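Convert to structure. Protein one:
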Amino acid sequence: MTPEDDSSDWPDDPATTTLHLKGSPDVLDIRAEADRPQEILEEMCAFAESRTRDERALYVFRLVCDEFLVNIASYAYEEGNGPVYAAVDGRDGLRVIIRDRGIAFNPLEDAKVPDVEAPLRERDIGGCGIMLSKEFAKKLEYLRIGEWNVTIATII
């Protein structure tokens, strides 16, 4: 699943490289194409399950990662596909960084807020996954560094 190692593809910023510790058994580092969100998600979740048995944390981890990976696959790249990099840190809790070079999108500010009071048949599609991610993650951050979207989620 890992494209060729090209360090020029990685943002050179401490906020996005703190999890990139080559060779650390407590950090999973994935480089893949955005059109493979389920494969990336399954690898990330297997790693998370090896670090904690906290069922709520694993549920939130899957929800947050699935939301962001599927959104990247669906909307980030106008040409249809591009790189996505993910790192999962199991050293002290459970934290994930997901990076893409897609169009700028700050999920904390740009995502539409769903009208959860409206009848289901009248609701617009979108916004619920990000809303739930904001609610359930311990901390959710977004950075735009050059041409990179960087989402950082702390689960536990």
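Protein two, convert as well:
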Amino acid sequence: MVFEDFAWERDGFSGCYAAPEDAGKDTKAVIVMSCEERGGFSGRMAAERFAEYGFAAMAVNISGVKGMPETPDRIPLEIFQPVLRILREEKGFASISTYGASMGSVFAVLAARVYPGIEKVILVSPTHVVPGSPAKKKKKDGGHSIATWKGEELPFVPVDIGNRKPEKTYKDEETGREGLGMWFAYSNAYDDRENVEKAYLAPEETGAELLLLGSMKDEMWPADYSVKYMKRRLERCDYDRNVRIVLYEKGSHLLGVMPNRKNYPQVYRRIPALSKVFRNLKESRAESFVALRRSEKEVIRFLKGQEKKN
């Protein structure tokens, strides 16, 4: 396997490239949006995992690493220009897709919107809007967009996390739905129709094939609502590209491609600690791990063009 590291100061972005030794122009490439480390799951591990499946992967660090903000905050979309130049011109790849889980889903869409020619966009446990950047202490919205383009902040939906502790579980008395304080904060933010309309991700503007994956029991934010919202908007505009929607009845916010278990057992040893936040990993452990495994297979099949049709 081939690895190459990139640094903000030298290359205009921070990231890691991984590819099979025999990668050629016909190899499919994927840009992985790495927003912090999920349970010790780094961007490098993500790129390596995609490479194990035969893809050339560039994990782009959006936040959570040296040289980048702790959480996504006014990230310039221009960082994807050198990424695409390297993949297209230096590496010679014709097929390039974007992949984003959780907050990374936002950048998977935005990168494909501002830089035409992305073949496929994969959104895992997504939101459907550009949210505001969290304050440093994550207790409230920071008052800025998580992304900028040509020096201007993108319209965003403010998310007020101050009323509840973000990582404490609460229960909605009306619906009986349980979720983190973060879940309720985003749910309330989505009621702001004016800002939602302005900040809507508009995946239909990518011109790409789309895969939307989520859990009906997502603890972090209402990913199922976001998936259904985007599905309705795509149907309304008669989007003519391939769209695949997968919602797991039971599962967790933790979905998508995970590192090789044999190579990185420490990541899986940390999952019980994640269950303190992602409760379904504990309360519906079997179903959550089934969804996790199936979601990885969905991603790989979709990238290879082998997915089952809706």
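Residues 228 and 245 are 9 Å apart (CA to CA). The longest helix spans residues 285-304.
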